[in-house]
Amino acid sequence: MTRKKTAIITGAANGIGEAAAKLFAEKGYAVAIMDVVEKVFDVQKEIISSGGECLARRGDVTNESEVKSRVEEVAATWGRIDVLNANAGIVIVKPLDETDWSDFRRVTDVNLGGIFLFCKHVLPVMKKQKSGAIVTMGSVSGHVGQTDHAIYGATKGAVIAFTRAVAWEVAPWGIRVNSVSPGSVDTPMLRGDIALESKRTGKPFDEVKKIREAEQAFNRWADPVEIARSIYFLAGDDASFITGSDLLVDCGWVAK
Description:
Elements: E1 6-10, H1 15-26, E2 30-35, H2 40-49, E3 53-58, H3 64-78, E4 83-86, H4 101-129, E5 132-137, H5 150-170, E6 175-182, H6 188-201, H7 205-213, H8 224-235, E7 246-249
Parallel strand pairs: 1-2, 1-4, 2-3, 4-5, 5-6, 6-7
């Protein structure tokens, strides 16, 4: 009997993480999902009602004991971990000289620290299997400068560099590590970002949204599932010779 493949997806209550969780489940993976908000259980119900297999837990990716427990639970439940999509992230939209140390620490702890902790605890399982794929979440902000996004962009640039280094470190065990860098994606986080920018500039929300949409060659935001498909590709066998890479899914933003 072929054992079902398993995937851990963080930040799975909304946006890209939710879309990824549903896509992996649709493709036959058993998925373990985690988020800090209660909505993660709604996503679990949707996956199960569609015939998928899903384990959901609330948890903070910056809490090492919680991360360790979640990874151990998944390994004990399904006997293996084939994919980690470290998707959890937050954004801060502030001028640098108005950014507090607590703001810096929180964004860094979640966006970079959460990926570090999950990789740290998933890798021993993958090394034992001598296989696995990790997909981290970079961002177009790790490639271009964005006003009032200095700390967010710095964390995403760090994630891309971290991904490259880990890819080489774990290559002897057949483990692949890549990142995805989305452009603007229609998620609650981006809409919150636009609301803050609207408040700061005094421009209507729809006007700011239109300006930000124009940063994409097709003058629209991505649907979260478009990013989820890229994650799924990098995690799967069709990407068997890809490691240490960052896949820009930014509709030409960086190419301009």
